[in-house]
Amino acid sequence: MVEPSPASTDRVALRTAILAHCRDWLPRAAIPAKVVFIDAMPTGGSGKKSHRALVAMLEEDSEPANAADDRALPEPGTLEATIGSMWAELLRGNGVDAGPIHLSDDVFCLGASSLDTILMAERIERAFAIRIADDELFLRTTIADQAALIRAAMTECAAEPIPDHTHRTIRNHVIRTARRAGQARGTAISPPGIGGGAPYIGIVAANALDDYDILACTIPLAGKPLTDDGLWFETGRAIAGQILSGQLPRPAVLIGFSIAGWMGWFIDRLLVAAGADPTPVINLDGGALHLSREGWMERIEPLLPAPDTAPPAQMLLVHRANPGRFIVSPRLHADWAPAGTRIERLTVRSVVHTDCCRPEAIRAFSESFAAFTSDPGRPCPLEPHASLSGTGATLFEMLDSPEPPRGSEMRDLLGALPAARIENGIRIPLLFLAVCTGAAEIALHTARRLSAEDPGFRPAVYAEVAILSELGRQEVAAARVAEWISLQGADAKMQARADPRRVAAGSWTAGADLALSSDAALDFAAGVFA
To answer: 114 lies in which domain range?
Structure first.
């Protein structure tokens, strides 16, 4: 309710001013759709305001709704229009209908979060073959500003020679200084991630390690992942060399997500081999890649310190928990044990890899981070499992339940998913649980949707064949197998699955561990149809 000044007689100008003020200060969902002018407040018999009369006046008002918006929309076919469409699609995936996005719209007012800037940075890299740091998007929040940022990066990229994979420049960015000026306890350094950037370190900086300056190392990879052509090896050695030469500060802690977490361990071992004390490593869901990737151990072993005499690595490992007997993520603690690393563990109750970097998870573990970095030689106070919201957490709780999911639960979950392509991190647990319901319609719908989105996604086709065979529809199952083989080549296990097994599903809670990505897990699930 707004009471204008008596001097304000131009209602058109007043309506424009009110809406402009609302757009500056309110999220889009809170901006009024219509401004109605009344001469006096309607009252009832008691003299109080009559809300019923106000509603009637609103409905009877002949003025048009405030649909007209004088803010500029992007011109079709422009970079601004592309960025607006990308944001609209990303927000729809979060259940937010942003409508047409104007050049001056602040994406955070439309419903975006800090995690969305990370996802957007990844989409920009895929679409334009350039790398924009997520903290840059965090600071430039309108479509116009982001398009200008991308144009500048594209111009810079075009002016640079193609990078030589053997002589790469490590770029160092201060993401955040210690929150209390002049009282930093040291520098936390993040190595590059799989794409060469450090997209998740901004979330850490916003939610933990307040007493440290936070620095991210990035490297231009020209579209290659860090795991290709020994780039991980060159990059790790280059960062360690910069630290030893004084080009980079000696880190008080190394921190990274996924491969960057492993890189933190590798850099620490290189520093120790050069005579430095161990650096605490906070590893966010990163595996012991040198023990699982072919040729990696042979490459780094000559550079590692002698295990019998060197102090062990000190690692705080944040990883996804495994629900019950179901394996949805690598058992990282067991994987790291042979590396001789002293490990403290924190776990996240979600099936999604990136949920280990969700702001809620980082905030929940911030005290443990502080304790570990202060004295990594002493056991730190560990927080309970971080329980999160979102689809990844919901799937985890379904798997961890003492009973398999009901059809109604899965129907509700599937109905809440956005129409966009299902994200990779939830495909396998979603498929497994849908089959475990024993509801043929739900199971087949899920398998077919996943295979339609990605025709090469074998688990979805295998599940569809298994369900059809257990339902006695061998001809349809055989036809689906033939279609798969024509596209992907011979597949003896798929071909054999077209025949019914007639073996009932085993116990949901007892028995050997099941890796959800395996054929055995889908055979177990299909047993409910037997």
So the answer is: 79-150
